Amino acid sequence: MKLTKKRKKANEQVDSEKLYELSEASKLIKEVNTAKFDASIDLHIRLGIDPRKADQALRGTASLPNGTGKDKTVLVLCSPDKEEEAKAAGADHVGLDEFISKIEGGWTDIDVVIATPNVMAKVGKLGRVLGPRNLMPNPKTGTITPDVATAVKEVKKGKISFRVDKFGIIHTSIGRVSFTPEQIEGNAAEMLGIISRMKPSSAKGTYFKSVTMASTMSPGIKVDIKSVKGI
Length: 231
Fold this sequence. Notes:
Blueprint: H1 5-13, H2 22-31, E1 40-47, E2 59-63, E3 74-77, H3 83-89, E4 93-95, H4 97-104, E5 112-115, H5 120-123, H6 127-130, H7 148-157, E6 159-163, E7 169-176, H8 181-197, E8 208-215, E9 221-222
Parallel strand pairs: 3-4, 3-5
Antiparallel strand pairs: 1-7, 1-8, 2-6, 8-9
């Protein structure tokens, strides 16, 4: 694939061998972005764990202090008595049977699915569709709960879920290129702090193998984990 002039210049601005302090990376990521749109900024965190072991298959949630920069579309699957509560909290779609049918038909035009415990017998069969897309409700991420109002509000404010893949890497968005360097740094530090505190007791050796920050259309910037306060 032929690189554009902008991408070539961006690549020249990033030293692929250098570990940048988090504050440096948070400034540089804005300078080397080549997208004409408000690109997502992601962290790619390679961990020294074995995801095949149950206690090392990390997954969780993070409430980013500066939000995600994206208004997430939320579906709440619940019984009729919870519908008004979910709608008042800001859910985009609320219901049960009609949405189960739509999802079984391939509809997944949503970012987060929240469900109440009493409907999981019906929702469970959606695992084959929602599971591969990381949309299946799960108590570990707070998306199976009777308190749908709080769950919806948290997602709308910037709560995100993450999980380690089979290679031991967590890929997660922490903001947008339009964010200030301080907002990018704050969100990244929060995410890395949470993952640091989740270190399994059975994990041996180096925990953070590498941390790379990149926007949708930019070269990756290696982050020095030692520059993150509290880690």
